[in-house]
Design goal:
Chains A, B, C, D: Keywords: Transferase. The structure is a homotetramer of 360-residue chains. In chain A, 33% of the residues lie in helices and 16% in strands.
Chain lengths: 360, 360, 360, 360
Amino acid sequence: MIIVMRKGATEEEIADVVERVERAGFGVHLSRGEESTIVGVIGGDRASLEALGSSLEGHPGVARTMRVTKPYKLVSREFHPEDTVVEVGGVRFGGGEVPVIAGPCAVEGRELYLEAAFAAREAGATVLRGGAYKPRSSPYTFQGLGEEGLEILAEARERTGLPVCTEVMDPESVPLVARYADILQVGARNAQNYPLLRALGQIDRPVLLKRGFGTTIEEWLSAAEYILAGGNSQVILCERGIRTFETATRFTLDVAAVPVVRQLTHLPVVVDPSHAAGKRQWVAALARAAVAAGADGLEVEVHPRPDESVSDAAQALSPEAFRQMMDEIAAIAAVLGRRVPLPTAHTRPAAGAPVAPVGD
Amino acid sequence: MIIVMRKGATEEEIADVVERVERAGFGVHLSRGEESTIVGVIGGDRASLEALGSSLEGHPGVARTMRVTKPYKLVSREFHPEDTVVEVGGVRFGGGEVPVIAGPCAVEGRELYLEAAFAAREAGATVLRGGAYKPRSSPYTFQGLGEEGLEILAEARERTGLPVCTEVMDPESVPLVARYADILQVGARNAQNYPLLRALGQIDRPVLLKRGFGTTIEEWLSAAEYILAGGNSQVILCERGIRTFETATRFTLDVAAVPVVRQLTHLPVVVDPSHAAGKRQWVAALARAAVAAGADGLEVEVHPRPDESVSDAAQALSPEAFRQMMDEIAAIAAVLGRRVPLPTAHTRPAAGAPVAPVGD
Amino acid sequence: MIIVMRKGATEEEIADVVERVERAGFGVHLSRGEESTIVGVIGGDRASLEALGSSLEGHPGVARTMRVTKPYKLVSREFHPEDTVVEVGGVRFGGGEVPVIAGPCAVEGRELYLEAAFAAREAGATVLRGGAYKPRSSPYTFQGLGEEGLEILAEARERTGLPVCTEVMDPESVPLVARYADILQVGARNAQNYPLLRALGQIDRPVLLKRGFGTTIEEWLSAAEYILAGGNSQVILCERGIRTFETATRFTLDVAAVPVVRQLTHLPVVVDPSHAAGKRQWVAALARAAVAAGADGLEVEVHPRPDESVSDAAQALSPEAFRQMMDEIAAIAAVLGRRVPLPTAHTRPAAGAPVAPVGD
Amino acid sequence: MIIVMRKGATEEEIADVVERVERAGFGVHLSRGEESTIVGVIGGDRASLEALGSSLEGHPGVARTMRVTKPYKLVSREFHPEDTVVEVGGVRFGGGEVPVIAGPCAVEGRELYLEAAFAAREAGATVLRGGAYKPRSSPYTFQGLGEEGLEILAEARERTGLPVCTEVMDPESVPLVARYADILQVGARNAQNYPLLRALGQIDRPVLLKRGFGTTIEEWLSAAEYILAGGNSQVILCERGIRTFETATRFTLDVAAVPVVRQLTHLPVVVDPSHAAGKRQWVAALARAAVAAGADGLEVEVHPRPDESVSDAAQALSPEAFRQMMDEIAAIAAVLGRRVPLPTAHTRPAAGAPVAPVGD
């Protein structure tokens, strides 16, 4: 950490700051410039530094403190230079492949979900998505089928041979959801739900961690650090748009987060173009942009008959539109020397259920 | 809901939209303007309307859909025109009084917390605050004392006679925290944690609901609706700053949210100037602004020796600075015909613990 | 326009609103729903509607007014369904080609600029960029060479055969800059400088209109409307990042603006990935994303020796990095059935100067 | 400036950075921490520092550069510790008084404007406002009366004895507007129009500089620096709301900017609650908040019959509502030991026109 003294800070103030830093157990490196004196803080752990910095922010002689180190460690590329590959049922996130997670926003019913799952697989999806628990801003809208939804997901996995990804909303439900799902998803509204993140650090199952729409990249990576610090390093990051003043789209896709995050961390980063766009006519453009920017995968909403969807209908692609998007992103991935994997006989659900005859 | 057809939408498209609306069980009111045709949707409940609107957003003949009704009902002033007064231990939020909740960010230890509690009361606070569970963006910083912290809070309540307000972070902990606290606080990062909000709807204890820093006013009120819909109408709203591009302050206090929310809802709204400012030298100015804008109370961080605080030291007021702030806001409240209540012998904790001799 | 009456508005209030609308010369279409009454306003021009709407916003019986028509007309795709192609010196923006404008941020000197211009052309740029007048946030940083810079740009055009694009900052300078430049650029800070936009409506020369970093898409298109309303329809829109809470990049590239704008307007839209990224290591990823999203071109900062640049050095690509970026975007454009044009003998500056032997 | 080297930067990289810094004419102070090496840059002027920093941002061994000094000098409180008082026609901004500028958004006609001016004065305004040139986002809305509007303003000044404040939109018009106006206003959309700011640096007349709605406090103060650097130090800053994701209000009033700016600079800072609120029912609350936060004045839209206003009708106060607001803010100012001045016989326009009998 660096402490910039106020221009005109007195010698007493400088000495007082130095003394506090030393008393807190850190080394000091003093640098007197023409305009201001700078106190470099050497050593110490992250927590003590944070507390020291905050306490000195209010000191009358201090102009400001500037953190030099990042607030996270295990997720940083400096700590772990090689790309982490998260493998789930034969699908690899982070190793140069660009798998696509697809399916309806919510699991609305058995028949419909199975139809959607087969349509998604046929168009090239290698992981299925679908919410059994839905965080909805109004208490009066559809909140998900709960465990019944999880059972439908499990059946879809058995019959399609594809692993499934679904949201978990509170720590208590983690064991239940983990019994059914291959990837546990943390939604944007829970991006800083620390009890939930801690619970996910205790399990041995991949986690897809969405960025909160009001969350900085640094906070997002710090949230991932909670999971890794708990012992679970199978984390897939997911950019899904942030809140800005622009209202034409539902959120503003921060496509630059893809190269930024790939530089800062070794974890794979995928993009959800559906929630960012909010309208289906812009989803494919955002999906292409994400892959072109280097995303390690996509999560896309697909519905057999989008107009009949009970949740987020406006942003779901039809199977036809999804297929065309898949063709485009496969070609773009190839430009970058990457590959969009297709579902094969080798695709196997991770959570161990026997695979039913495909195309049943 | 209103459906605006595209300029140039065909008669077939208009007929198709009308048919869908009717099939969904709504009435239709067609209005043909010079530039565009508008389909008014009549009747129906909120959930069906939401689903219908989303599904029609993708229709080729539709330019856009516009919701006319609000997504919340029980929290709206139209539904309940009179101000709701939330009373806790003799302190009233919402009835023209402007009580102040004060104390350290976190409960760091018994001695220190009791010292802080008495200092806060002496300066005029009528409710104590202090976190036993702290949502921190880094897993390596102080996370709170947990139940030990709750016990310290309970002791502080007994000895000062002031009710206490503390944060709860997950649904499972609600019963435990409710055993100790007079007001259960939902932090900004959990502002859309729906399982938690649902759990708080089940209890008979006031809830202080902070606005998420990426959350619109409409979403914030919808989050409150979850609690009221569950049966608990003792909700105090708390504005604490939103995320914007400005970095001089930690967050941008949306002071206009105070009059806006007071118009939209009957629930009391208080302001937390400490987290918005992020630096103690600006806290009093924001506190004064909040009271002048009509806030029904404040929540302020006060620490006996701010520089020694382990959490958010930079934004904590010293007892002296807090006292001066209290004098200023009392005078400003008076301008608006309101009153900042002071702690008295009549102040009694709500949760029933016997009150110890004050000043012990 | 639609006027939504308050729930509980009285018959007198409704009658009063209807009377005002009619008195202002509009037709009325009344629709009484279960929850609220809606007054549809029929006919009238944009200006009167705007004034009526604003005046009714304050009416005690009115909940809110909602505009149905867009604030712009000439730039809208409804008014002009076919893509507008802006041609400059043989380079076409908007007709399925993806030309790249490249060069240093500022014209720093003759030798350096010519070196940069040839390097940019060699790597595939078909238009040159370079600022003679620089809007800088500090008055103490380099402000551009002024007319001397324009002369260097003209010489570069003659010698490379490529048209040039440069910024104009005030209406008075428009004739001077138009004498030298093939495309006049409006910077983000002048995106709503209406006297400047009006002056650009009077000339017969293409304008590249950057989006302001605090400007919505609707305001951006309305700014373009000023130029078209003046008689100049050769407008190229340029997305260059908006202000958000994220600070990892200099601005947040709103890549979704590309498909949104292409749907709303017939004007070509290009992307400036350099200012959005702010750091050169992320420029190519954003350039690829922009082309993949459907951008009609790019504007990129290239410098022979980026580290020596006096302006925005951190975001300038070296010629080598630029060449690699060009290869990637050419391949991505091909995926979309589009083509990145290369400089050829046929490339001719638009403003009529004789072309010097290439490769001199 | 401080250069933070990458963790793991080689000795060659460190030596190369040091050499570049020295070659650019700066001194070097090297500090080797446990995690990273820091290069302190000593001496030099702002422009060279900015260029050096930007050029090193791209260096492979550099993690990031951090500016220690501010980009502005003349406006900083460090350079000029005492409050600057801007006096205009006997009205003082910045010396503990809280004058109020009031009047209609635009000058719509002579009769109406004079009526508004007398009403504003009667309610306590000490400066008149009114736009003769209006920056409107649509070219089809009322753009102001131009010079005719200026003449009306001059007449209003003569007859009321109050100085007038009006907007100037381009450098060419500065002399004309300065002939009529006592305070020249720079609107939010021109907050970074540097040719205009430079032109205003050349005149001897107070300037009211609005903050751009996408502009940081640092950029706003840097814009003021342009005016002071030109030789004109009579600058009044005006906060008027910034762009955020919240849409309930037209903009989000950054009330914290008041104490922040008063700490950073010696210039007076006033607040425009009308544009921030966008709806008249919230204007008084924001005005009270601004004065409570320490604002040195207000600029408020008042219209004799708000519903008939052709520009921004929704946010204009009636004279009655304005009078009530004046009473409230006077009482709040008194709490802070400040005074809202009232118009008196001594109020005299600054620009020298003879004062007509008041109440004529």
